[in-house]
Amino acid sequence: MGKVRVPALRRSREPARRGWLRGAPPPLWVRVLPGALVVAVCVATLLSPRPLDIGFLLGAIPPLAGLSYGPLATALLGGATVALLTVPAFSLNDPGDTDLLTIVFVALLSVFVSFVRSHRDAQLDLERTVAEAAQRALVPPLPSRVGPVGCAGLYRAAQRGTLVGGDFFDVRDGPYGVRAVMGDVQGHGLSAVATVASLLGAFREAVLDRPDLESVAARLDRRLVVDSARSRHAELFATAVLLEFSEDAGAVRIVACGQPSPVLLRDGRVTETDIAPWTPLGLGLSDAGPLCGRTVRLRPGDRLFLASDGVWEARNASGAFYPFAARLAALDHEDPAVLAERVWRDLLVHCPEVQDDVTMLVLTPRATDGS
What pLDDT is stored for residue 1 in this prediction? Predict the structure, then answer.
């Protein structure tokens, strides 16, 4: 199936995107500005029939150069500025009585600032690379297919500059079939990353050795209970929905722990699976009675759409919730990745300032390599 290109959003909220005032390389116009200012001053003074009192503009060139360039380029532009003040043909040092020593001092200071900035930027780039590598190791890119199940996911962390927040999902193949999880831990942003890491580790281990889906959920619940006991004031909990596909992906068993159940897309219609949610993880599942899931039969072409609270509970300026289930059929697309992206774009139209982590997971049972 060919991929459909989705136009970029004006406000994409991609974690890696950041303004140049927040550490990104300066835009082209900022880099061109020092040289353009030098040329503009030279042309203006040469074309003017009388001396112009614009020598003060040259004082801005070294600081602008230090903002965009390294120490060497800043020093060259600073030297060019001082040279322009001393060339008699431009007469820049006479009309305004520009203090040449002041310009020299500003140029030297700009070189020093450029040196410090360059080293700081290099250190920040290294730290950012290490942080992104650690986050991607925690939540690696979702494969397009796991066993007989096609997968497409979308993750937007609420905290800018991060790849991981309080939401999590994973799809794993194991001896008991393909299992998937989507969850939302208490809080969001970097403060929730440790809990996310703990839950994902417990899920990946349970996929390999727990014979049924209910016991996988119990393992995650125990993990949070143990983690909470280690800290006197910790009250960790998380909502989650877990899925287990049969060997031929003709059926799926679903366990919901405080998380909205998946939505079933079938023949262009949207059906809510209405799985009775259990208590959230970390509150002690055994105290609420035996955990029980539900098995749903699947047909070829069915898709399961899982969305986090950041989708279900998103509100617009008037306080109205995003009508996720009602909008999904109109946004449907044969490519699951495009479907998730369409929902994200539509969500931003409804609620431009999304405050929570947003996670979507589209699972296509009985997927083939050509789908």
Answer: 37
